[in-house]
Specification:
Layout (H helix, E strand, L loop, with lengths): L1 H10 L2 H4 L4 H16 L9 H7 L5 H18 L9 E5 L2 E5 L14 H8 L2 H11 L2 H4 L6 H12 L22 H10 L1
Antiparallel strand pairs: 1-2
Length: 189
Amino acid sequence: MFNTYIRSKLEYCCLVWSPSHQNDINKLERVLKNFTSKISGMEKLNYHERLRKLNLYSLERRRERFMIINAWQQIEGIKENILSLKARRIGRSRRIVSTVIPIGIKGKTIKGKYRTLVHNSTARKMERLFNIIPPNIRNITGKTTDTFKGHLDKWLMSIPDTPKIDDYGLTVAAESNSIVDQARYTKRK
């Protein structure tokens, strides 16, 4: 029921509206946190443990996973490249390179809220997320989306999914639960 009636509503068009502010991310995450706490046998587990036990991604992780998959589909030509994402080989690895240059009028750098808007745009989020995944996954070409998803999901299982929500953020070492921060923290360990 949750997947059909609730999660489908929370994720509809999430590539367009995915939140960047932690307060907004937490508001959405609390829906899944609340729902999983009512499942029989899960009452005594904390949210992170419930996600692991139920083999679920947090809602934030699912949104970021969708962005990575959609970016791959756009650069592979499977979906229309509406964001004009460009992939280039840098060394042995394919990376998405930014097509949005943060330069204002007459060569002045964009500052303040406009810089934040560019940084949090869907294209820039997709760029950061796609470029953080391992090169062997980024370099997958000419395969089906299911093949790409399989490799991505296998890697995501090695990246902690520990939302910083309510009292659960105290035990999380990475800056946030974003795949970008969790992958960087995992590499440093």
